[in-house]
Amino acid sequence: MKRFLLSFVLLFFTFNTAFAQKDTEHWIAPYYVSTSASGYTNAVYLSTDSTTPVTVQIFSNDSNGNYVQLGTDVTISKGIPQTVTIPVAMISTTSSTEAGLPVNKGLYIKGTKAFFCSLRAAQFSHGEIVTSKGKAGIGTTFYAAAAPINTASTTLLNFTTGIMATENGTTVTISGYDPGLNLVNISPTPTNITFTLNKGQSYLVAGLANGGANSTGFIGAKIVSNKPITVTNGNANGNFSIPNGGGSDLILDQSVPTDRLGTDFAMVRSLSPASSSEMEGGIIIATENNTEIYLNNVGTAVATLNAGQFYRILDANYVAQTNGHYNMYIRATKKVYLYQLVGSNGTATGGYNYIPPLNCFLPRKIDEIGLINEMPGIATNTITLKLNILTEAGATVTYSINGAPPVTPTTAEGPYPLLGNTNWVTYAITGVNGNLAITSNKAVTAGVNGGFSSAGYGGYFAGFSSVPVISKQTGECAPGIILEVDPGYDSYQWYLNGNIITGATSNTYAPLVGGNYTVRVTMGGCQPVVTLAYKVFSCLKETTKSSETCGKKIIQPVFTSSPQAPVANTVKIITPPTHGTAVVNANGTISYTPNTGFVGSDVFVYKFCGNDPEFVDCEQVTHTIKIVPIVVKEPTITACQYDNDPTAIFDLTLANVTDYTSPFVKRYYPTLNDLNTNNNEITEPKKYASAAGYVYVHISAEGGCNATTKIKLEPIPVKRSPVLVDKFICIDGRTSLDAGPGYDSYQWNTGATTSSIQGVPVGEYTVILEHNNCFLEQTVHVKKVQDPVITKIEITNNTATVIVSGGTAPYKYAVDGTTTWQDSNVFTNLSRGQHTFYVKDAYVCDPISVEVTVPNLINAITPNGDNVNDYIDYSELAYKENLTFVIYDRYGNKIFTGDKFNNYRWDGRSSGKKIVTGTYWYHINWNEPNAAKTPIKYTGWILVKNRE
């Protein structure tokens, strides 16, 4: 009996349980089986760490290429994994007619939460595990891998690569293989293989072990697609022993795209004996030229590879530690694939697994891989497993089986140093089975290897997205596409063209525009990492536009929202019009010409693109164009004609002369003859002064259409209120203002909206008068009346006459109080001394007053020196302003003038001589010391008796 290897390594990359291969979606491509190696039972194994039940559905294409669910929904949760048997026809084939062309094979598996998924294939003498990497396993660039075939056996050994599309319209090109290959169902062997798949379809490339190029010629073949694909590669069956010892085994694993690769790796030797026939080691495949490969602590490269070349690591490169523990450190200067070759008891127990790269972003917890020691149709009691753990130096590590309490490894189980990399150590633990969980306080990877009596298997379950990469969750273009990186990092920050996107801090982002998108992730003490750019292109924007024309029309393509400028040579007519022609001009405009006589709507579709050098925006426009004649109107417009203005100011542009909606030009003329002769065009149609009458309009539109019409002009006269006039009131009085009837509205500057306002004091007032939507502002004043002024008071003996000017007659007069008023301005029988005279006019405002002095009247003097009546003396009036005292004889001759020099005293002399006895006349004038300087005139006569 053969003993087959179980090499089952688990890698996780987050602090929690969101691992790379634990995902909500999984894809598994089919494999091609040589006829003598058939008979495998295939099953998918599903497990999760979620205590909440997870619903899983499995799909595969039917014969018509449509996704069809296999069976019913499957429910899993932590501690309760499930197994689903897969029909052979869904996942593999032995028929040569199903190689080299699209086939409806492969699996798509999705769940309501993240879960682990692996395909396990077994028969009585062979077995293998293909671990799904989830979204980390899909991409657009891969390099094919297989174990070298060292024995010619066309019925038993082969190499196989299965490629499955995740989207419709996926074009794949395979290149870089040995042109001497003999491929199944592909003859002759082409330089490149190109094919197109729809969602869920697969393509199998296989070659039988017929010697020559088929031994290693497909290893390193480059696989490139325009949309994400998944790849399953290896041998079904294979044998890589040196020298060949006979037998075979199923050697398969799911690949990862090149953007998930790394440069640092570790391997722990499996169960092969010392004389292993090189059943231990690895296969390295370069993805870039001049890639140097280093092993352990050796400073010299063991190989320098170009893209697509491979190097086989031999058993002797493992470093022996104590207690039979062997490990190896592998380093490359550029990103590479590493597949570990593993064995057990003999040359027929080969195994093969993709090894994820070491890095700081590996997980701290692995939970949970279900039914670790189970294969479909194989009894579990014969399986022996060994657990290998890789973790950072200084870590505290525990493991748990079937939910039991955590167990700490013994010192005999590890840690062991990794020669060439002091940051990592290894453990080896036997006796594991069931549902497995591993915990470390630092980055950790883990794996198991082993076998059972008649079958072997192996596979990795985690760590495949420890290098963060942006992938597409859904959609094709922006807007609509959703980008994602794996969940479980500590933080995220998305960027567009190197610029931070504010608020974009989750593991998904929905771009709105095209461009280069990157995301910066952090985790624990690791240095932040920025992903490679993911190019997002804008969706074709489909819009609708409409226009109207009376004839031909030039259409300028313009983006609805893109800032790009349309490129002329990208303008294309997608669907031509039915009732006319649409021609793209050299400058990128579109000339539309309707059929002769056509009136109505026509539709055509055009497309154009922008000028961005990489992320080109395109827009497709469905243009509805309505062909209508220009139908004119003869509108009437009005304008306000204010007060006595002979004209009104009309805005001719407000006249709706047509309902035609496309652009047109209007020209205005004062007469029809001016329009016909194109003379005297009105150049300021917004401010056209005119009396009642007509204006004539010429209308011209794109497409050569013309029309004429006229506009009736109707002035609306608006007159000032004839009753709203200035008013005069006393300074402290109040009055009312009335604009009168006949207006539609009133708006006073006081806020009032009535025709009149009451109780207004002295001031300026405005009212806006509305009539037929015309508004006229009228100003009115309430003024203080002019006060009367006492201009003069004439006093004769004991009679005073008050002279008044200003104000408004008739006047009223009073003296020494305002109780008794009289119409006369003459007051008699006044006593000598101070008197106050009052005057008010017809407005009866507060009276004005003047206080005057009625002097003592002396009618005779006898200047004889006896000191009795010797002189007339008015010196007591000297304080009055402008005081004059003049005496005249009966002939009017001035004989004396009183002034301050003679102290306003007269002793009956003139020029020093006594005058003759007789009667003389005099007058006294002064100004009262008030604000008005009221002039006072006092007249009288005096008898002078002189004795000789």
UniProtKB/TrEMBL annotation:
Gene3D superfamilies: 2.60.40.3440. It comes from Chryseobacterium taiwanense. It comes from the Bacteria. Residues 138-450 form the IgGFc-binding protein N-terminal domain. This is IgGFc-binding protein N-terminal domain-containing protein. Keywords: Signal. Residues 1-20 form the signal peptide. Pfam families: Big_9, CHU_C, IgGFc_binding.
